[in-house]
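Notes, p. 3: input format for complexes.
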Amino acid sequence: MADDLARRLRDDPEFARFQTMYLDGGIDGIALVAADSDPCPTCLGLTDRSYIPSGLPRLPIAGCSAPGGCRCRYEPNVTVYE
Ligand SMILES: [Zn+2]
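Output follows (82 residues plus zinc ion):
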C-alpha cells in the first residue's frame, strides 16, 4: 500500500501536487466530480464526495461504463479561512 502510494506519487504529477498541497494544508481534500450530468452507476457511487490523497480513486475510474469513457475529474477542495 505504501509502495503503491510512492509509485503513484512518482508516476502521476497531478496526484503528487495534490499530496503536496494536502500536506501543506492548502487543501482539505480532493473531490471527485463527474463531468456528465448522467454518470454511470460506478462513477455515481464515487463522485460528489471528498477524498484525502491516499484514498483518492484513480482516473479513469475502474469499471466505469460511460459510453464515451470515464470523464470524471478531480477538483481540489481549498481551505477557506475566515
Ligand atoms: Zn467516470
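The first helix runs from residue 2 to 11.
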